[in-house]
Design goal:
Elements lengths: L1 H6 L4 E7 L7 H5 L6 E9 L2 H8 L10 H16 L7 E7 L13 H14 L2 E8 L9 H11 L2 H4 L2 E6 L2 H7 L9 E10 L2 E11 L48 E5 L2 E5 L1 H7 L6 E9 L9 E9 L4 H17 L1 E8 L8 E8 L9 E6 L25 H13 L19 H15 L10 H7 L3 H6 L1 H10 L12 H10 L29 H9 L6 H19 L7 H17 L3 H17 L3 H9 L17 H7 L9
Parallel strand pairs: 3-4, 4-5, 6-10
Antiparallel strand pairs: 1-2, 6-7, 7-11, 8-9, 10-12, 11-14, 12-13, 13-14
Helix pairs in contact: 11-15, 17-18, 17-19, 18-19, 18-20
Amino acid sequence: MLSVLIFSKYDEVGVVLYGTRETNNDLTNEVGGYEHVTVLRDIKVVDGDLIEALQQLPRGTVDGDFLDAIVVGMDMLIKKYGETNKGKKRLCLITNAVCPIKDPYEGTKEDQIRTVALQMSAHGMRMECIVVRGKMTGDVNKRTMEENDHLLNIFPTKGSANVACVDSPTSLLGALRTRSISPVTIFRGDLELSPKLRIKVWVYKKTAEEKFPVLKKYSDKAPPTANFATHEVKIDFEYRNVEDPKKVVPPEQRIKGYRYGPQIIPISSAELDAVKFKPEKSVKLLGFTDASNILRHYYMKDVNIFIAEPGNSKASLSVSALARAMTEMNKVAILRCVWRQGQGSVVVGVLTPNISHKDTIPDSFYFNVLPFAEDVREFQFPSFQNLPLPWQPNEQQQKAADNLVEILDLAPYGKGEALQPDFTPNPVLERFYRSVELKSKQPDAPVPPLDETLKKITEPDPDLITQSKFVIEEFRRQFELKENPKLKKSTRRIMREKLSGSDDEGGTVEPKLDAQMFNSNVEGIGNLTPVQDFEAMMSRRDNPDWINKAINGMKSKIFNLLEDSYEGDTYQKALEYIVALRKGCILEQEPKLFNDFLGDLVKFCSEKYLKGFIEFLASKEITLITKKEAIDSDVTEDEGRAFMAKPEPKTE
């Protein structure tokens, strides 16, 4: 009702209770019967009084007949609207359907249900039935429940009705469709398979994001006696001349400008209209592809549904045949769509068959928009297989993770799925509706706490967490978190700070080198600070093997970066690693290791089509280590400069 107040302030609603000790309805007075059915509120515009009445509903004290309540509600709608408002009259039955309905004077209960359903259709009424079934006690008659479920499921076959079963207050809140959205087609026309083969289809939106209510600006400046004042605030914009602020620039003297480098290019409305792409309204098949070629993360925007043109048997037969053939061959169709004439954009999407398993519902297609090249975000991430073995999960850790996923499954075996989209309301919108309702009564009231019903959506189920405590603790033990110690500064950074005569507190110190700065516990080059790790390993003196290990580790880092490169996005980082490696080899008098590496790198880039990186290194003047830089080098200065510039050998 809160959303009805916000979105449909002119909707009229009545409330009928059944299973009450008292009886209060017109049919009882007119024809008799219909006992224990009470009209709590006649049909009228929704207001705050109705919301308060619904918040204080009494609990039923006697067995109730849901069919009597339906007939009383139909009688109220017929007396209020007669033959008008067809398609806009709606009944919503909320019941647990555990009490039997009375036997009719003539015929069977099924015949009685069919008669009522036909009368509903004749008067243009729709019905939504929500069966609430939580934890049932042993007193419930299962045979009666099964009979009532069978009777309620007759309504959808004979009229415009829908039956849904829920098992929690949260699901009930989501099942109550208080806002009625009329189905509106976004396209009516031909699905063009070829120039000579077309199928008449209608296209509707299947899912669409519910937008947050628009909050408008209102003014309280209107006098209290102004009964017809809208209180709306209107905003007007004026454009004034910079040189003469008093002069207003009229619309015909204004023009849009687009920045192009340092320039601003003026483009008139006529030019902008001429540049726009104006395709013809159409839906055309581009081709078919395997369903496995369309990845789930390619889907964009809302989902549409294609159905055959209503009343067109040939179109229905064609759609069904095409959908079943695509399902059998595991194919999907790629379409080019322009939904309306004059639309400035073209949509390319995938058409997926939707085979119906009910005789009353025809086959159809789901349509999802696919991205263009500009819409795709391709980010390269290193494979887990490239990580060291200590960083990969062992068998016990993998088992703990598997158990955690299994125990927290929202659809456990033998139970219904929790948080189904059809029965899960948006907690943000629901919280907003309740806050507005509270503010309407108490303007200074604080924001209320989150309702317990909504907590079931926004927070893990406490009962499930309690039941899974052992599994969660086991997962925590297998992946124990440790405090990350503060990273030590690299040797070169410490030396620069010490030699500059400044410390962390901003004071000055004597340029004194501490022997401990050359000692480090770093044993490998990590991903967080690889350059600092390399320098720390190169400075270790407890074992001569650390130098070779550091150099080989940095080489591997560079090759991995280039392998994962996409359009040169890792070139700059690879350059930093190469510069650090070159300096380290010079300091430790290991020129041959770097020079051999640079030769291998050039060969690697040629084989992997990364010639752009070689040109990038040449532009940064990265050369071999020469004899002038390291006495153990065999490379002269001329040879070092010519290395990157020499032509590549021709392959025969």
